[in-house]
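Review form for a predicted model. The reviewer records the input and the model, then writes brief findings.
Reviewer: anonymous (R2)
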Amino acid sequence: MNIFKRIEEDHKTQRSLMEKILATEGSSKERQTLFSEFCVEFEAHAAAEEHAFYAEMLKHEEMTDQSRHSVAEHSTALELIEKLEKTDMSSAAWLMTFKELAHENEHHMKEEEDDVFPLVKKNLDDETITEMLTVFNKRKEREKSPVD
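Model under review:
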């Protein structure tokens, strides 16, 4: 597996969780569980991606703007998650905000897959790309581990 397949794997998980959440209603136990799972997955993924992937891109002038743009999209998604955590899950406002989050996240994932991956493949050597996977996996594991 390479970093691109690893990130795509996470995207598939996020897409599935978002779809399942959108199929739930009100403040159901199912919605609460799925949303909690999504938050853990998204936040761990974003932290690992920024650490392993975007930090490396920032070292190369031709990828700096794209890297900053992608990290800003993570920040927007995290702000929406924070807003959702403060909103009554059974309200129309919660569902509208979650739909916004799902839309923004889908845009971000598609942009990574269609635009960012080719940019990285063009500008980084195989050794660096291989190392990105190792760093990503270690960081994501650390992010998902319970705090002692």
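Findings: Residues 9 and 139 are 16 Å apart (CA to CA).
Further findings: The first helix runs from residue 3 to 22.
Recommendation: see findings above.
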